[in-house]
Amino acid sequence: MTTTDTTPRPTGRREERDGTTYVVFERTFVAPIADVWAAVTEPERLVRWIGTWTGDPASGEVAFRMTAEGDDVPEERILIDECHEPTRLVMRTARPDDESEVWAWQLDLSEADGVTTLTFAQEVVNVELAEGVGPGWDYYLDRMVAAEAGGDPSTIDFDDYYPKFAAHYRAELA
């Protein structure tokens, strides 16, 4: 799989979906859609850039643990609301620092002329959330691009994203 540009820059944009605000990101891959689907759903591919999961997705939930943030990160319960391989995955979880708030994510894939576009969206309920998750998703998606291009995701430095991109996301989602 080859991919496009990985220069750190804020790429998320505001989008309204069914009356809800989302921050939306896109990344493109010169690869078949099934290969990109595997990169976002198979634990051995996912672990290279963000984390891993255990459990049975057919049950509607899995246990996910981020691996890029240290060894002591607790597992999160991820609920799978929709899974239409290889084009759409919709999930949600409780916010790690405030279980009363739910984070919802939508992943959509499309392929044209050998190029697969990943569109990733996270529901944003307030600007303070956008200041953190916007740079965070730019960081993780750039790690995915590096991993899928055969690069080393550990060369992607979070300090190049946060707090540098926070103002962009504060303005974009205000």
- What structural category do the secondary elements indicate? alpha+beta
What percent of residues adopt helix (DSSP H or I)? 10-25%
* Number of E-state strands: 9
Question: Which superfamily, in CATH terms, is the homologous superfamily of one domain?
Answer: START domain
- Write down the Rg: 15 Å
Question: Major β-sheet, in short?
Answer: 9 strands, antiparallel
Q: Supply the CATH architecture of one domain.
A: 2-Layer Sandwich
- Looking at the structure, the CATH topology of one domain is Alpha-D-Glucose-1,6-Bisphosphate, Chain A, domain 4
Using the alpha-carbon principal axes, give the shape. globular
> Terminal Cα separation, in Å?
36 Å
Average pLDDT value? Answer: 92
Tally of contiguous helical segments: 4
Beta strand %: 35-45%
